[in-house]
Design brief:
70 residues, mainly beta, single chain
């Protein structure tokens, strides 16, 4: 739609990537639910794998420190 180049990690290109920790286990609950909806089939369920860092246009935007979002 926007016609921007994407899908590559090359010098000079915008980088939107995440770093996933596949070994991290966590429970989906009201505090971890970012949705405006208060219900989810995952509520109270243990899940495996969680994003630990993210970059948008090559700039770090979010990271988890000692298991906590920063």
């Amino acid at each position: 739609i926007i016609r921007k180049p994407s899908g590559t990690l090359k010098i000079g290109q915008d980088a939107d990537i995440i770093l996933l920790n596949p070994d991290l286990e966590w429970t989906f609950d009201g505090e971890t639910n970012c949705s405006n909806s208060g219900n989810s089939p995952f509520m109270g369920k243990p899940l495996g794998g969680k994003v630990s860092r993210s970059w948008v246009i090559g700039q770090e935007k979010w990271k988890m420190v000692n298991g906590l979002e920063s």
